[in-house]
């Protein structure tokens, strides 16, 4: 099987198992490796992979990015071995030394500052802040959220299509309910999406647009960096400080991968220690 056929077969077989963006990134890593080494899939070895990873490091890629690319290669080569395309996996045993960064999330004081800043802006932005913080959902999940997914009596939201196409139910607070209803009460349209694009009123709000507001407005005016994903971390950290077990938090976050588990275990322990230090 030639390289192109092998790559196409991987994409076809994994389209229902992984998020399409993940598949795209995995295959990009494979194509970049092939281009850099000048080798075909069946002639690649550990030396070629290590030389490519070293090249990425010299080009200034962050360790997290290089590790992600290596993870894509490992998934692809594991598939090739399972399908009998390769007899050995050239990526086995290769690892990236990662410097563990300190988990970052907002303190209650910084969260209050963010809320006060957004209070002066439009209702939709205030509602977005509360939904992200109260549910811990991803920005992509917020973009896809529909009105029919909200169950007001139970104060829950059904996330229909999360990462790797797994749905789940998340909770939201009374404060979130107030701001979300205040925003939706201003809507006179029948568009099914909870948050709509400022540019195209019949489409869901764009992930890029929300990220840009955080990056170019909130972060600059507050004097510290805040992103939609920061609120996801803050959601987890604040629940940890209130005593919720880690496994419950992970269920609400909707993830199962070992890498995510390790990160949120560190975040959990860090948040609990901060709470301990505050009272000692």
UniProtKB/TrEMBL annotation:
<dbReference type="InterPro" id="IPR011010">
    <property type="entry name" value="DNA_brk_join_enz"/>
</dbReference>
<keyword id="KW-0238">DNA-binding</keyword>
<feature type="domain" description="Core-binding (CB)">
    <location>
        <begin position="1"/>
        <end position="81"/>
    </location>
</feature>
<dbReference type="GO" id="GO:0005737">
    <property type="term" value="C:cytoplasm"/>
</dbReference>
<keyword id="KW-0131">Cell cycle</keyword>
<dbReference type="GO" id="GO:0015074">
    <property type="term" value="P:DNA integration"/>
</dbReference>
<protein>
    <submittedName>
        <fullName>Tyrosine recombinase XerC</fullName>
    </submittedName>
</protein>
<dbReference type="InterPro" id="IPR010998">
    <property type="entry name" value="Integrase_recombinase_N"/>
</dbReference>
<dbReference type="InterPro" id="IPR050090">
    <property type="entry name" value="Tyrosine_recombinase_XerCD"/>
</dbReference>
<keyword id="KW-0229">DNA integration</keyword>
<dbReference type="InterPro" id="IPR013762">
    <property type="entry name" value="Integrase-like_cat_sf"/>
</dbReference>
<feature type="domain" description="Tyr recombinase">
    <location>
        <begin position="101"/>
        <end position="277"/>
    </location>
</feature>
<dbReference type="InterPro" id="IPR044068">
    <property type="entry name" value="CB"/>
</dbReference>
<dbReference type="Pfam" id="PF00589">
    <property type="entry name" value="Phage_integrase"/>
</dbReference>
<dbReference type="InterPro" id="IPR002104">
    <property type="entry name" value="Integrase_catalytic"/>
</dbReference>
<dbReference type="GO" id="GO:0051301">
    <property type="term" value="P:cell division"/>
</dbReference>
<dbReference type="Pfam" id="PF13495">
    <property type="entry name" value="Phage_int_SAM_4"/>
</dbReference>
<keyword id="KW-0132">Cell division</keyword>
<dbReference type="GO" id="GO:0006310">
    <property type="term" value="P:DNA recombination"/>
</dbReference>
<dbReference type="InterPro" id="IPR004107">
    <property type="entry name" value="Integrase_SAM-like_N"/>
</dbReference>
<dbReference type="GO" id="GO:0007059">
    <property type="term" value="P:chromosome segregation"/>
</dbReference>
<keyword id="KW-0159">Chromosome partition</keyword>
<keyword id="KW-0963">Cytoplasm</keyword>
<keyword id="KW-0233">DNA recombination</keyword>
<dbReference type="GO" id="GO:0003677">
    <property type="term" value="F:DNA binding"/>
</dbReference>
